Every structure is written in structure tokens, then in C-alpha cells.
Amino acid sequence: MVINIYEGYTLEEAIQKAKEELGENIKVLHYEITEQKTWIPFKKRKKYKVFIEQTEEETEKFDTQLEEIYSHLEEEPQIQEEEINTYSFTNLTPKNQTPQQPNTPEIDYQKLLEKIETIIDKKLQNITPPPLNPNQNGICNEEINEILKEFTGEAIDLIKYLIEREVDPQVAKEIVKVSCGLDLDSNKMDLTTPTFKEAVLKGIREKITFTGNFDKTENQLKVITFVGPTGVGKTTNLFKIASELIINKDLKVGVISTDTFKVGAVQQARAYSSILNIPFYTITDSKNLKKTLLELSNMDIILIDTVGRSHYDYWRLGEIKEILSGGTDWMEVVLVLSCNYKYKEALEIVNRYKSFFYVSSLLFTKVDETKTPGILLNLPYKTKLPLSYLSTGQRVPEDIKILNPENLTEYILGE
Fold it and tell me: Across-strand partners of 256?
């Protein structure tokens, strides 16, 4: 007796391969289910291995023994793949029992395999997946499991992966949901895209907005102010952007600093301005800001650096607001945040700053210092603020990128 082995991602696929090579007169002796690793650490895919014997004639249908298998599967509440693998189709009895004398029955293999696979899928769906570890942002497992109930298959795997990257579960759900369709077998949602990257990209394009690069406004002086907590890198990244506007766009740029409090801040900004050969001013009140803007009216873009202040320090934030009141009505305010912040803390910062300033976009820094940049999705989704730039390191002017759906997807997935 010669036994041939065929593999496929479904039973039908493996059997079809056997039929194409051996013809219709084949006998299914046994099949096994294995799991194949994918590029996602916790993502595995089922693969079927079927053992085939080529026969001279087909066997007859054997309903009694088929019902015996169905009965056994229905009675076992926690069926595992190891138990399924113990069945051989030679005599349709468990391997650990003495097989009956073969009656050479004839079987409708296609119908048999479809029924058994339906039973297997039904049993596996009823097995409750193990709970995830507590999320670092303090999200309870019950909330995560409640979200996962709406999904099946690869959609669950993708949501879990995004949560591991510290994307908020509700945000992960909404991003993934964009790329899902209804799975008729489970009546739940599953991915319709061939890859995780395409699914996340599609969700980001629909749910997140972007400013694109900063550019001059036709027939009008453009003024952009950078605000944010202490130590997030406002000054350094302001000059990265200034360098890009000067070198790549050949624009006339001027810089104004209100940060006369931090030791060395003015000296650092003056040094950068000298290297770029651009005008640099320091001011301390709204009247001086208005006067300085008039002096720089021949520029294309004015970038204003502010002192870092805690979002809980209302008095100091009020001082910054008073100084900036001397600016133009159309002045843009960019809120600078570090990717090292936890989601809830960052959301609190955004809400506090929004109560003082008309924040127009978010700029993120220090993405190179974190492995879980879920904040890049959480904040723009929750606050509805567009994303502008992303700082990827300390070098000036190289380490900054204009955020767009493509590179945001790559950072979220860790590519």
C-alpha cells in the first residue's frame, strides 16, 4: 500500500491536490491539523495534512460510524485539536480503540469532511481565549475581551497586536473595523484585507487627519507657534523644521523666542539661527511680539518658540497666552508632545493646553525612545487634531519626518 501526503490550508484544498494528481479513486486514511507561524509573534495559521491511499474503487457510505464520530464530538465540551487528530478515516474509529473489521463502505468524502470541519469550527469558537495581560495603561481585561467578542479570525489578532503596542482598545477597534466585513460562519467581523499593514493603513486614512508639510501662505505672513511641556524638544525640532523650509523649499524664515527662563535656551536658539543665517529675536511681552512681527513682515514664515510649562501650572500657561496675544489672528499653534508619555497623561496635557490655546496640530518627538508608540494613534483619534511632524532622533536637521498615513502605519506596526 502506497500512502501519499498532501497539505493545504483547508481540508478541501489538500484533498483537491490529491485528486488532481491521483484521480478520483482515492481513500482518505487520516488527517492532522498543525499550526504555522506567521510574522506576527502570536499569530498562527491552521494547516491540514491529509494521508491518501489510491484505490481501485470507491467505498460505500457508512452513516452509522459517521454518526458515532458526530456523537463523540457533540458530547465533548472542550474539544482540542489533539483529540481531533486521533481520528483515522480508515475505519472511522479512534486510534486507541481496536478497529472493526472493514466493511469496505462507500463514503461521500466531500460531504463528510464539510460536516466534520463545521463541527470542529463550532467547538473551537466556543473555547474562550485566554485573557490578555493587564495593559500598561491600566485597561482591564474585561474591557478588552468585550471588544474582541465582535470580531473573529485575523481581526482579533490585529487588535491584540495594536493593544500590545499601547493603542487604546477602543481606538484599535475603530481602526481595524474599517477593514472588516461580516464573516457568515461566525456572524462576526473579520479582515477583508490581505495583510495587517493594509488594514491599519486603511483605518488610519479614514480616521486620522494630517497637516502635511508647513508651507507659506500666499499673500500672507504665516506664523507658527510651538507650545508644550518642559523637555519635549520644542526648540530643537523648531530648528529642524526651519532647516527643512530653508534648504528644501527655499523659504525666508525668521525665529522668535519667548523662552528667557531656561538656562542656555536663548544661546542654543541663537546658535542655530546663526548657522542657518536667519533673523532671531527674543521677546518677553505681547507688545514686543507685535512689533517684532511687523519687522519680519518680509519673511515667508515666522516660527515662535515658547518656554516649556507644566499643564497644571495655570498661571504660567496664562503668561504664555498673554504674550502670544500680540500675534496674528491666524497664528497656528503646534502642541509638541513626547512619545514617552502614557496615553491618559498625554490626553490630559492636550486638554489642558487646548483650554488656553487654539491648538491646530500635534507634533510628536522621541519616537526613537519607545517601542510602544500607540500614542501616535490614540491622541489624534480622541482629540480630532491633525498630525504634523514626527521627530525620530537628535540630529539637526535630519531626524524629522512629515507624518502621513504610510509612515504612521509603519511606526505603529513596528516596521
Answer: 281, 304
